[in-house]
Amino acid sequence: MKRILFYILITYPICMATAQFEPNYDETKVPKFEASDLLTTFDGKKVNDTSGWENTRRPELYHFFEEQVYGKVPGKLDSLSFEVVEGSTEALGGKAIRKQIEVDMFKNGKSLSFHILLYLPNNGKASPIFLGYNFYGNHTITDDSNVIISNAWAMDNEDFGISDNTLTKASRGVRTHRWAIEKIIDGGFGLATIYYGEVDPDKNDFSDGLHRLFYEEGQTNPKADEWGSIAAWAFGMSRALDYLETDSDVDAHRVISFGHSRLGKAALWAGASDQRFAAVISNNSGCGGAALSKRKFGETVGRINARFPHWFSDTFTAYNDNEEALAIDQHGLLAQIAPRPLYVASAEDDQWADPRGEYLSAHYVTPVYQLYGKKGLARTKMPQTGSPVHHTVAYHIRTGKHDVTEYDWEQYISWAKKFVAKEE
C-alpha cells in the first residue's frame, strides 16, 4: 500500500502537468505559421554569402538556441584524461578491432568517468566513425562477452532484466537489433558508443552527473539559462571526439554524430556546438530535435518540458504552449550543421515525433546549403515511404515505429560512403 501511495505522489505532478499539453495528431489542427527565413538576420538584414552566414547569421542563431533552448555550458573542464582499459584485434571473428576507453573529466576537485566502446575495421587503415550514445549500457548493443557492464544508474526495464536501477549481464545483447555493427564494419566504418547514463543519468536530478562538476559552492542545480541533460550529453560526445583525435586507428576528420530519439536531439546539438563533427544523423529526434515546434504536432514543447524537465534549460519553458513566440524554429538548429552533411530520418508510425515536421525542417535549410553549392531537399512534398533522398542534406521515412532498424543503418552507411568517407 505504501509503495502504491508513493508512486501516486511521485507521478501525480507529472500527470497533471502533461495533461495540460495534449499531443495533436490532426493535421487540420496545425496552426498557420511561416518558417522564419534562415538568411535574414533578427534585425532584418539579408545574408547573401557564406561570409555573412558564418560571421553574422549562424552565430546569432546558435546563441538563441544556447540561451533559450539547450542552455549554456558554464565553463571548461580543468583537465581530461584517457585510458584504453581493454582491447582485442580479434573482435567479431577477427574482422574488427575492439577498444574500451575510460574518459575521465576533472573540474573543481571533482571527477566523472565514462566509457567508449569502439569497434574498428581490422584493415590497418584509419577509419571514419559513427559516434552515438546508447540507452542501456555498452554491453546491450552486442553479444560480445568482453564488453564491460557499467555500474552507473539505469532506468529499470523488466523486459531487459534491469531492476533496482542496476545493469547486469542479464541485459547483455538486448539491443543488438539497433546497432548493425557488422554492416558498419563491412562498410569500412567504425562505431563508437557510450552509455548516456554515465555522462548524465536520465532523471530530473542534477546531483550525480556531469553538471555537479561545474557547480559553485552551495549550488545544487544549473542556473535558469544553463545546460540541461541534452547539452550535457552533447558535451560528452565532444569529449569522446577529443579521445578519437588521439587514436591513430580513427580518421578523426570523419566522425559522424549519430543519435536516436532524445539522443538524436543530443547528436544535433553536439554537431551544432562542435564543428569538428564531419556530419550529423538525426534518427526520429522529434520535438526539440529535428521537428518544427510551431506545427504543434505530436509531442509539443509544453509536453516535453513537463515530462522531461531536466532535458532543456529552464528558459525553454517560456515557450510552453507558446511556440509561436520562438524567434526561430528547429530548422535554425539544423542549419548550424551547414555545410557539413546532414541526415534526418523518420518512421511512418512515429507520429509522436512528427515525421512531416522533421522533413520540413530539413527542407527549410536548403537555402543555407545552396550558399555553399551543396544540394538540399528542394521539394516541400515528402518523399514516399522507403524512397530515401541522398543529397548533402538527406532524408528518409520508413515503415514501422520509433526505433533504429537495419534499413536505417543501410541508408546511413550508403550515404556516408558518398558524402563523408569520400570527397563529394
TrEMBL record:
<feature type="domain" description="4-O-methyl-glucuronoyl methylesterase-like">
    <location>
        <begin position="224"/>
        <end position="373"/>
    </location>
</feature>
<dbReference type="InterPro" id="IPR029058">
    <property type="entry name" value="AB_hydrolase_fold"/>
</dbReference>
<keyword id="KW-0719">Serine esterase</keyword>
<keyword id="KW-0378">Hydrolase</keyword>
<dbReference type="Pfam" id="PF22244">
    <property type="entry name" value="GCE_fung"/>
</dbReference>
<keyword id="KW-0732">Signal</keyword>
<protein>
    <submittedName>
        <fullName>Acetylxylan esterase</fullName>
    </submittedName>
</protein>
<dbReference type="InterPro" id="IPR054579">
    <property type="entry name" value="GCE-like_dom"/>
</dbReference>
